[in-house]
TrEMBL record:
This is G domain-containing protein. InterPro entries: ClpA/B (IPR001270), P-loop_NTPase (IPR027417). It comes from the Bacteria. It comes from Enterovibrio gelatinilyticus.
């Protein structure tokens, strides 16, 4: 049996080879997977210059996605929107303000227009906007204004399910505090500054725009002593995205070329178990009617009996393989 790198295809193969699922269940699950995989996913990244939008895209979807694009060199500091595409995934890397008032106004207009664009059925072109802000920046005003004055009005009443706010560079924000190398986690102090910035932002957005959005603190390139930088809290960020996306788009995140570096998905604040949340999300998506992963005794799907448990096992195995968490 040949393995597939596409999540839903590998899962479909595993389902068809399973000896514990009956033929009817197999057919139901295959049909469901087939419905869910025939989609496209458009994610737009926006935010001021230098906050790490491109770094975030690379952290999530690997260097290849961005590297494939011809315009990489020219795009990084230009006014052009870069568009990266692979399979059903389309990523829009939107340039930030340059300080030139006229150009900036034009950029905002373009961004607003892209976000309001819909197809004939009224389905938006852009499924999700991820606004990246720099937690290390003392002044977050320009990013904040971008959210409140450009993005939220353009998203209209769907802003809640189409907007994720990320506070990047938590490593740089926590200057003075150290990574706890003995425990291999950030020391509690490392999180305090970005988290309080996140609550402040959340409060301001709620107050000004009625937006109930909790920014996710993360680092696309957590710089570590004597080691190459690697992401921190990436799983939390991607979880937030998957949780908000409409049902028919969720699986596409897994079918996208997710970063396949071994350590990319490992380090998180562990406030909740993001991997478990991800497994639950996927299980509920594929096994219609399931809730919270239908866990029994902690086992994914086990509440639904033998077949649920088998699907739970297959989902778990594939999630862990995709995110290198075996
Ligand atoms: N310390 C730190 N630096 C980062 C992080 N993410 C990105 N950077 C750096 O920030 C700079 C700007 O990143 P880039 O992705 O080009 O920003 P963009 O203009 O928003 O696309 C680069 O030098 C990155 O290496 C992070 O999590 N921590
Ligand atoms: Mg960039």
């Amino acid at each position: 049996m040949q393995n597939s790198t596409v999540f839903s295809r590998q899962l479909a193969m595993d389902i068809s080879h399973s000896s514990l699922l009956d033929e009817f269940k197999k057919a139901t699950l295959q049909l469901r997977l087939h419905e869910l995989e025939a989609q496209s996913l458009n994610i737009l990244f926006a935010g001021p210059q230098g906050v790490g939008k491109t770094a975030t895209i690379k952290a999530l979807f690997g260097d290849d996605l961005v590297g494939d694009a011809l315009s990489e060199q020219t795009a990084s500091n230009s006014l052009e929107v870069s568009r990266y595409e692979k399979g059903g995934l389309v990523v829009w890397d939107y340039p930030g303000h340059t300080g030139h008032a006229e150009q900036d106004a034009l950029l905002d207009m373009q961004l607003g227009a892209t976000l309001t664009e819909c197809d004939g059925d009224g389905t938006p072109l852009i499924d999700m906007v991820v606004v990246v802000l720099d937690a290390a920046e003392r002044n977050l005003n320009s990013g904040y204004r971008l959210i409140c004055e450009v993005i939220v009005p353009a998203l209209g009443d769907q802003f809640d399910s189409r907007l994720v706010v990320g506070l990047n560079k938590v490593d740089a924000a926590s200057y003075g505090y150290e990574w706890d190398f003995a425990m291999d986690t950030p020391s509690p102090e490392v999180e305090i500054w970005p988290e309080s910035t996140a609550s402040l932002l959340r409060h301001c957005m709620l107050d000004e725009s009625g937006l109930e959005i909790a920014p996710v603190c993360y680092a696309a390139e957590f710089a570590r002593k004597d080691d190459i930088a690697r992401p921190f809290n990436l799983l939390k960020l991607v979880n937030e995205m998957v949780s908000k996306l409409p049902i028919e788009k969720k699986l596409m995140v897994f079918d996208a070329p997710l970063n396949n570096k071994t350590m990319a998905w490992h380090e998180s604040d562990d406030r909740i178990n993001y991997l478990v949340q991800m497994e639950n999300n996927l299980f509920d998506l594929i096994y219609e009617g399931a809730k919270d992963g239908a866990r029994f005794g902690g086992l994914l799907g086990a509440y639904l009996g033998k077949q649920g448990r088998e699907l739970g096992y297959l989902v778990r195995r594939n999630v862990r393989r995709t995110l290198h968490q075996e």
